What does this fold into?
Amino acid sequence: MNEVDNAMQQMQALTMKAYELGLEYTPKLLLTIITLLVGLWLIGAIGRVMQTSMEKSKVEPTLIPFTTGLVTWGLKVLLLVSVASMIGIATTSFIAVLGAAGLAIGLALQGSLANFAGGVLIMVFKPYKVGDLIESHGHLGVVKEVQIFNTILTSPHLKQIIIPNGTTSNGSIINYSVEGKIRVDLCVGIAYDENISKAKTVLMEVMNKHDKVIQDPAPFVGVLELADSSVNLAVRPHCHPDHYWDVFFDVNEAMKVALDENNISIPFPQRDVHMTKA
It folds into this structure.
């Protein structure tokens, strides 16, 4: 009977202990669950508001889900740390581990983080956008895609160029499309005995007749250089960036035809040789 009594006493003690623990921790547990559910709902609402606001502000579409996800996941981590501390779990060591892990990851991925930061800057300040003709770090091409880490260009040779955003954001960028017009630099040589005024008039007519050459700024022809074999004329039509190569090739061809029709010669390289008797 003593063993039965001891067992009953132990059961009663365990029951009382469980009851006391239940009285102590049940309110905390309920409060923790409520805090977790409300916190998750609020984080979701914040994410939706952020997404709607950025869409209305016409933020780069690539940046919207990434930024929203980054903020919501950060808030979820803070919520979990807060919930853990509410139920009595020590979070100091956990936060220290997270900090050390973040530092290690940051050092290991510093190049990628620089590209990410550069991508964010490009998407926020928009020095260029998809479809623009740009030049950066010696590469010329049309922007095909602006990603969070890289910018992808298509070169005039139809080659794909991938430039890290960290490099692009910290370097010089020439945007040929932002003004909506671009100058085409051409040069043609005429013989020294030809009439320069007539040649300039012929070349101006060529540019004025081309439907893709714009008149503001007006086309220009001027003497560029007195070269060894010719007088070189600078021909400067302007056009929309999308029409650059059309104007480049069409005007070059039309200049040759027009000069021939007006009997204005384009000289070959020549050299005068003077012979003297020894």
